Amino acid sequence: MDNFLKDHEKQIKRVLWIELGINIFLALSKLIVGQQFHFLSLTSSGLDSLFDGSSNILGFIAISLAYRPPSSSHPYGRHKYETLGSLLIAGLLIFTSLQIGMQLFAYFGEVPKRGEFGLIPVITILISILASYLISEWERRKGEELSSSLLIADSAHTRGDFYIGIGALVSIIAAKFGLWWPDFVVGTIICLFLFYLALRIVRENLGYLMDASPKIEKDLIKQVEKIAEVVDIHRFRARGNQKAMFVDFHLLLTPTLSLREAHEIGHKAEEKIKDLLKEHSEKVDVTVHIEPFEKNHYDPE
Ligand SMILES: [Zn+2]
Ligand SMILES: [Zn+2]
To answer: CA angle, 152 as apex, 147 and 155 as ends, to 5°?
Structure first.
């Protein structure tokens, strides 16, 4: 089993490495040619490939660092490596999309810088379109073969690059006929899309980093209160995301129970919560604090 998993991990990593190499090549060629020929759509499409490349790197971090089992130095695991990586990528994305967005003004400068048609931009974007199509197909097939949600999700994203590439191709061809506004429009859309993507990453990851309460139904507590001898629950807290979640609460029980009985009910409650949160998170960690249900029981803030 261990060998199988190792081999599995190796294969997923290999797919990501190949994709990373291709993405970096595409990003550099599009950024350079886009700047040289003043095509905003080509430049921002290059930025998109750069972003994909950094997502591949994040995939490596996730597989090799974030999902290592907890150890004595990191008893809660290392899931936040992935969060940190995502936030870094988002920061980079915000910075560069603003940078490229500034180039929109160059369209209306004293000496307007607008896309100049050429064979090189056409070839560059054609290679990119073909590459995104092939990678997306290959990744989807590999993802299904290795049942890796990471690869399948990534293949959907690469499919998006394919459409971005088509948009850039249209802008470049339009420039041949003296039309500059398609490049302006396509470039703006890609820039706005990347900016939106970055903000979404920040929103999703900042909450987890700051231990924001995940969206779980309040019904959960009622379910646990159905267990016999459980009278009440208070100080219910949860933090985490779909990868790992930590829950703790006070469980108020009939005061006459023996320690042995109370302990058993405590475990039942933990199991119940784990079961109810199964769809919310891959790994749920529950801690209960048991209290006798009595007037004025000791419960300092
Ligand atoms: Zn126990
Ligand atoms: Zn309490």
So the answer is: 145
